[in-house]
Every structure is written in C-alpha cells, then in structure tokens.
C-alpha cells in the first residue's frame, strides 16, 4: 500500500511493475489523476470505490464506514459548539497553490473589525499561519505530517485553544488536496472550494466528489484568465454539471475584482446563523492537542 496516498494498485511501466512508492519517487503520474502507463486503469469501479489486495469490497466499506462514523460524531460535537456561539465556520478546500491563504488575508482585511479566527492545515511548516497572524488575526497551525487532510478531531482540539468569539467567522484552511478532504466533515457550515483559473476547466470533472460536497466555488486569479486562455464560462458549466446547485463567485484577490460579492456572501451567511443564546458554552479540553508552530 502506498504510504503517501493509501492506494494499492501498482504501475506497469515497460513491462516492469512499480509500487506506488517507487512511482512517487520517480515523479510518475498518480492514478488519482492519470494512471495511464501504459494503459488506462480504473480502480474505483467497485462499491468501495477503491481496491486493496486481500480486502473485499464489503470489508473496505466497513472500514471506511467505521472511520467516517467516528469522525462524523466528533464533527457533530464541533458543530453544536459553533452553532451555540453563532460562529460561521467555513472549510476552505482546494488543490495546492490555488490562492487560499492570499484570499484569506484579503478577506480578513475587507471584513475590518469583524471577529475572525483561522485554523491552518498543512503537512509541514507554519508559513500560512504566520501570514494570517501578520494581519493581527488569531490562527492555529495544524501540521498533519503525512496526513493529507484535516479531520474533526484535529479541528476540535484547535477550537480548545482558539475559543472563537460569539457571532464571528471561523475559516478552516484545509490541506491542499482535492480528494480526501471531500469525505471528512469538520463541523463546518459549508465547504468552499477554491479553484484558480490556471488549473484547467476540467478540474470539476476530474475531482467530482470535492465539487459535489461544496456549497460555494470561488474562481480565483481571474486577472490571469487572459494569460491562461481560461474559459470562465466553461469552468462554470463544468461546475454545474457536477453540482447543479453550487454557488459560484469570480474574483481576483490581487486586483480586488469580485471581492465585494464574496464579502457580501460571508456577511449574509453570518446573519443567517442564530445569535448565541445565553453565555458561551464551555469547550471541554481534548485529550490531545494539535501540533502548533
């Protein structure tokens, strides 16, 4: 089994079988994306959507169900706390380099005095959390090591330290990955998928789970569209092919175009949250704490 992604099917290159670890080290395409060396193979046709040697599709579904059920229970606890506080919690998901952190910094600036807290997820470094803290906003860095996504337990532990203000914004910047974060509820109000115009109009078709799970898609770096021959209408068409109900915004954090629509969306969502009733709930300490930098 691949230690990087958890997949199990080997590559066949010029008649030689390579493990996924070997393929990663050689920089070969990953089967989540291409897996066409030398032929196209589809390993997600069974009920479990994946194959692992020695495990039946039924057993794989049982394992996945157990993992997600435990995560969902913790996520519901996070959600109860956040709802009681009237906090709007958004899970920002994307591929690496889409511009999540830049958008967050510009968003914090545009929100002015509104209370904001941020949870940053990356495999390593505190670079993004440092950028957020430079704006004067509270941020906690979660380093996942070889993990490719945040889970509800990590977020719950971060909430212990953040203790977000009532009627505030909580932005959760997930690990850059368009696959695994789609399956993990963190207790958020909505997933917001960030898609830069340089990534290709077919991204929603290649990674449908993520775009199906998202409530809002933000097309970022629109100022680069003329230089990338990007067809923004094609982006929107493919997004709606995957998720007919998805909301879509176009913006450039660099030029500010479209930022007013994004801020308006945020403010409307916050007003839809019920105001906190009585005193803020006590957030019980978690048994373990996330790695902070």
The biggest sheet amounts to: 7 strands, parallel
Low-pLDDT regions: 1-18, 22-38, 281-293
Q: Beta-strand level of the residues, as a percent range?
A: 15-25%
Give the helix proportion (percent range).
25-40%
CA radius of gyration is 20 Å
Which outline best applies? globular
Counting DSSP E segments of at least 2 residues, the number of strands comes to 9
Number of helices: 10
The helix-strand sequence is: EEHHEHEHEHEEHHEHHEH
Mean pLDDT rating: 82
Structural class, please? alpha/beta
Alpha carbon gap, first and last residue: 30 Å
Your description of this structure?
- It is built from 10 helices and 9 strands.
- It is an alpha/beta fold and 293 residues long.
- It has a 7-stranded parallel sheet, with helices on both faces. The chain has a two-stranded antiparallel sheet with strand order 1-2.
- The longest helix is centred in the N-terminal third of the chain and has 29 residues.
- It is globular.
SSE map:
Layout: E1 11-13, E2 16-18, H1 20-26, H2 57-85, E3 88-94, H3 100-111, E4 116-122, H4 127-133, E5 138-143, H5 152-162, E6 169-173, E7 190-196, H6 203-206, H7 208-213, E8 216-220, H8 225-228, H9 232-242, E9 247-250, H10 259-272
């Amino acid at each position: 089994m691949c230690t990087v992604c958890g997949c199990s099917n080997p590559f066949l290159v010029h008649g030689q079988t390579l493990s996924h670890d070997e393929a990663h080290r050689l920089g070969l395409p990953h089967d989540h994306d291409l897996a066409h060396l030398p032929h196209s193979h589809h390993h997600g046709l069974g009920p479990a959507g994946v194959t692992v040697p020695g495990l039946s599709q039924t057993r794989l579904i049982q394992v996945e169900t157990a993992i997600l059920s435990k995560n969902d229970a913790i996520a519901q606890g996070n959600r109860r706390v956040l709802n009681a506080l009237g906090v709007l919690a958004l899970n920002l998901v994307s591929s690496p380099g889409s511009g999540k952190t830049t958008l967050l910094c510009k968003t914090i600036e545009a929100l002015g005095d509104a209370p904001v807290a941020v949870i940053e997820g990356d495999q390593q470094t505190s670079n993004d959390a440092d950028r957020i803290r430079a704006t004067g906003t509270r941020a906690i860095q979660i380093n996942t090591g070889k993990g490719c996504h945040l889970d509800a337990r990590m977020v719950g532990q971060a909430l212990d330290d953040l203790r977000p203000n009532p009627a505030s914004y909580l932005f959760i910047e997930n690990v850059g990955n368009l696959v695994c974060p789609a399956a993990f509820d963190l207790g958020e109000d909505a997933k917001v998928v960030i898609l830069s115009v340089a990534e290709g109009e077919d991204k929603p078709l290649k990674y449908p789970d993520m775009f199906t799970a998202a409530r809002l898609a933000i097309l970022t770096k629109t100022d680069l569209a003329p230089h990338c021959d990007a067809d923004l209408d094609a982006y929107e068409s493919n997004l709606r092919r995957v998720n007919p109900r998805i909301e879509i915004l176009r913006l450039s954090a660099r030029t500010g175009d479209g930022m007013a629509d994004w801020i308006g969306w945020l403010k409307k969502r916050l007003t839809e949250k019920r105001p906190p009733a009585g005193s803020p709930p006590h957030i019980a300490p978690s048994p373990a704490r996330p790695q902070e930098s």
